[in-house]
Fold this protein.
Amino acid sequence: MGLQGAETAAWFGRAKAALVSGVSSGFRYLGDDDTQVISRGEGGHVFDMDGKRYIDFQLGYGPVILGHGHPAVVAAVSEAAAAGTTFAMTTSTEVKAAEAVKKAVPWVDRLRFTNTGTEATMHAIRLARGVTGRDLIVKFEGAYHGAHDYVLFSTASSPADALGSRRSAVPHQVSSGIPEAIRQNVRVVPFNDLEAAERLFRSDGRHIAAFVVEPILGNVFGIMPEPGFLEGIRRICDEYGAVLIFDEVKTGFRIALGGAAEVFGVVPDVSTFAKSMGNGFPVAAIAGREEVVGAWEAGGITQAGTYSGNGIATAAASATIGELMGGKVHARIREVGTALMEGIAKACSDKRVPATIVGHPAMFSIYLGVDEPRDFRAASGHDADLYLAVVHAMVRRGVMPCDDALEPWFVCGAHTNDDVAETIEAFEAALSEAIS
Ligand code: PMP
């Protein structure tokens, strides 16, 4: 039995006839009978084409931190749209948004806006290569940094048996269509393994332009960095003159106003922000220390984009950051996320299902396995089939996390205490159903 009602199924039929596989992003296709078609969102809820309401823990893969259709963002965006949105010139809206980012993330000297996380990491990597005159980049196994060629190696889509040994991890290319020369410029190491990173830098350090780091593995259960790990990565980058890039596309503006740099007290050279900075509008930033981002000013390193800094995106960013500045949203998210994590952990232990609730209250996951995961290699120890069965049983009950166990549950400022109670009840019932 699929997850679509009659109207939703009819719309998905139309979707498939016009959009390839019925989607605009490959990750969204969940099968012909299970891919949802959404009519609208409101606060912490979404509605499908049959009018069925779901408590939304996907939030568009994370961005919608204030809730869908938040009035302050809607007002700011409507005003910006009416004033004309794309110009071949700097706008006051854009300047105000840049100032808001600097205020929220005080270590940032200057930045440039772009539209998506993919563009942000692409530009950050080119900038690091341009500044250092080196070609290699290092990333963690399981980390996702967008859909451009530079980074589609050993992501969360890679099979466990393609990663090679932990001591000499192999970059696994996850897509056709990427030139071999690009793969030769990528190195990978397991998350939370400082020794592996040190070993790699000892052999290749003087050729490494950048270490691209998801400070929390936001595409692998939201695995947290162990104490001292990010500090160690910072030290290695300093020692070898590599640019430390924090990819804060998922963590930025979500786990705290100042993102992972604030939470973990480790300051990178460059950060990429997107998702929660704009509450669902396509806005991103490459932000950093003057020594690195200032290199754009000298010329010779290309960064460009017709829509970069456009009025709608930057008005959305200013309004979203303005709401987050008050501090109430993050406090609320922590409260809701913690209650969910505790309720879900209790349900698993009551039913004697081995599980660890991994991550941060703003972005956590349910790892259905025995040991607590420290890196992507541990993903092979979780029960993906059981998780999928639980998620489908929850979706039928009107609760919608992502069906991929590795993708965290995202919490927003509009989730209510009733949503929490309903979700825990649905989870308990779904787990019972799935293990019976
Ligand atoms: N970096 C990270 C950490 C991400 O999670 C994502 C998307 N999930 C991206 C980059 C790419 O962002 P976008 O989809 O906006 O291109």
Remarks:
- The two ends are 18 Å apart (CA to CA).
- Residues 354 and 370 are 5 Å apart (CA to CA).
- The mean pLDDT is 97.
- The pocket of 4'-deoxy-4'-aminopyridoxal-5'-phosphate is lined by residues 61, 116-118, 121, 144-146, 214, 218-219, 247, 249-250, 274 (CB under 6 Å).
